[in-house]
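ok trying again, last paste got cut off:
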Amino acid sequence: MKIFSGRSNETLAKAICKSVGVPLAKAIIRDFPNGETFVKIEENVRGEDVFVVQSTCPPPNQNLMELFIMFDALRRASANRITAVLPYYGYARQDRKDQPRVPISAKLVANLLVAAGANRMLTVDLHAQQIQGFFDIPVDHLYAAPVIFEYLKTLDLGEQVAVVSPDTGGIKMAHAYSQMLHADLAIVAKRRMSDTETETISVIGKVRDKTVVLVDDLTETAGTLVSAARILRRRGAKRTIAVVSHAVLNDLGIKRLRKSNIDELITTDTVPRPSFDGVKVTTCSVAGLLGEAIKRIHTNSSVTSLFEFDGIRIG
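nice, full thing came through this time. structure:
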């Protein structure tokens, strides 16, 4: 088994290698003056079980192209099996035709990954679970919930806790958290105004005088989180903790978080996160989770138990 890394999240790749107990395999990745990417595999991979770690975070197009070129180099070097390890799967929100004459980009990316040489895919918290069906290869879809829950157990959340989904699409994930925390479940109804603006309409459920755990899979501009936190505070929530699997934050998102009612943001290291002050941010590592999945895939063992925590089935 050999684990390679693209340039998008080398820190996580090294942590995964440490968890598995193997060194990070060597490869040269650089850009030509004209912007084209060059890859050279510096180890013998003939007949090897190869894993390539690459988050498709910004810049997503560059990181995807780099991944495709790595696959091609590995395939031409006679690797036995190539597993794409995408802790964060970009383009996941473009998973359906919601307007006339628009692409289904999540499906296109799946096709390109397979065409480039991927034999298997490993990812964490897909924005839409049906994306697994876009692939004609096996997909192992992990959840960050058990890793984040270990940290939540160390916090004094109080006796009155409510887990809140900031939109109807995240109800299933929020329900899993509510079971783990033995908490009530609430939903914020929202309406999207643009790519960066959302409007909260109402709250379904009781949040008054409770610690609120606001659960979402992804945030970039933090519009959904901040608007949800605002209406929850108006409805009497005494404390708001945001839990986000992928914090792909840009400058607008950071600015909004600093001015928000969110007391703490809990996220993972699936994507590199810029450091900023103004709000408490805790990062939980998914390296151990991905490392365990890689070991099981390599030995053709079941990964089903990784979807369960304290007897609760996640996903």
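cool. The chain is about 30% helix and 30% strand. The longest helix spans residues 60-76.
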